[in-house]
Write a structure and sequence with these properties.
alpha/beta; Quinone Oxidoreductase, Chain A, domain 1; Rossmann fold
Length: 354
């Protein structure tokens, strides 16, 4: 089926409109009209081939809210007219140990990502949510609670689940002290979710001017990480630190602030930790540094339902698709509070064929 989208054709090209083919729906597929799509840092990295593995043309987008327009003969959980979501994955092997436990993102054979991945059946490159329509297996479709604003709900499909997963894994809740490092797309969701779960929440930041916003988003306390006295005042406090910083940085200053059995979890950065970490900083106090990567389908639905019950959405700036290149430039400057979301009603047909 033909559809419209926005794609990068090379690492140096601006994104521009194209017409391309979606697969014909399979019996277990859902066809949806895309209403909104969030803009993630990953979109920019892959569009510009920062990792060296982008296949062009690439249609980014994995924070998708849409309306069901067609269901396959084998679909049982959704119907035409439902508001649904598509996150970072559209398939996995479904039979390995991680998949059987609900951790499809850690599929042994490799999860099929929503864009720049490879379809397990036809070997075509997957194309994402900067588009008018998508075709996705029912197994990887999420139900969006009616209470949630659809534009604000879009980033929950990546930023929301990325921060929800460690909060649940390390049991954030009443009586627990949780700190968040960095106030951006991920950090602002971590504050909202940790507060709603009942934890005492602190923001670590290098910017004094972020305190007012941090408290609005759920922080009980704000600690300036460049201030030695403020850092010393929270020694041994935190059961969990969710580190959302998306670039190389030194984690050592945060380790003394962990409590006994405390864990610092990296969710924003996947590169090398070039600053050495002292084993003693971990051994004394049974502390740990861990990582966490998005979440499985069941966990994502749990997070969406929780957000529906508590009225939690992302703080967003809604843009037209024609503004996407400007949005990428602003994203590099952290010039957004706190997530761009594309209104796909802005996508009109003036494209060429791929």
């Amino acid at each position: 089926m033909k559809t419209l989208g926005y794609a990068a054709r090379s690492a140096t090209d601006s994104l521009a409109q194209i017409r391309f083919d979606r697969r014909e729906p399979r019996p277990d597929d859902i066809v949806l009209d895309v209403l909104y799509c969030g803009v993630c840092h990953t979109d920019l990295h892959i569009a510009r081939n920062h990792g060296g593995y982008t296949r062009y043309p690439v249609v980014p987008g994995h924070e998708v809210i849409g309306k069901v327009t067609q269901v396959g003969s084998g679909v049982t959980r959704f119907k035409v007219g439902d508001t649904v979501g598509v996150g970072c994955m559209v398939d996995s092997c479904q039979h390995c140990n991680p998949c059987q436990q609900g951790f499809e993102q850690h599929c042994v054979e490799g999860a099929t990502f929503t864009y720049n991945g490879t379809d397990r059946y036809d070997q075509h490159t997957t194309l994402g949510g900067y588009s008018k329509q998508m075709v996705v297996s029912e197994k990887f479709i999420l139900r969006i609670p009616d209470a949630l604003d659809p534009a604000g709900a879009a980033p929950l499909l990546c930023a929301g689940i990325t921060t929800w997963e460690p909060l649940k894994q390390w049991q954030a809740g009443p009586g627990k002290h949780v700190a968040v490092v960095g106030l951006g797309g991920l950090g602002h969701m971590a504050l909202k979710l940790a507060k709603a779960l009942g934890a005492q929440v602190t923001l670590f930041t290098r910017s004094p001017d972020k305190e007012e916003d941090a408290r609005r988003l759920g922080a009980d306390h704000v600690v300036l990480s460049t201030d030695e006295s403020q850092m010393a005042s929270v020694t041994g406090i935190f059961d969990l630190i969710v580190d959302t910083v998306p670039y190389e940085h030194d984690v050592n200053p945060y380790l003394p602030t962990l409590a006994l059995n405390g864990t610092l979890v990296l969710v924003g950065y996947m590169g090398p930790l070039n600053e050495p970490v002292s084993a003693g900083a971990l051994v004394f106090g049974r502390k740990a540094i861990a990582g966490s990567f998005i979440g499985g389908v069941a966990a994502t639905q749990q997070m969406l339902d929780f957000c529906g019950e508590h009225g939690i959405v992302s703080d967003v700036e809604v843009i037209g698709i024609q503004q996407i290149n400007e949005a990428y430039d602003r994203l590099l400057k952290s010039d957004v509070k706190y997530r761009f979301v594309i209104d796909l009603a802005s996508l009109q047909d003036d494209s060429e064929s791929v």
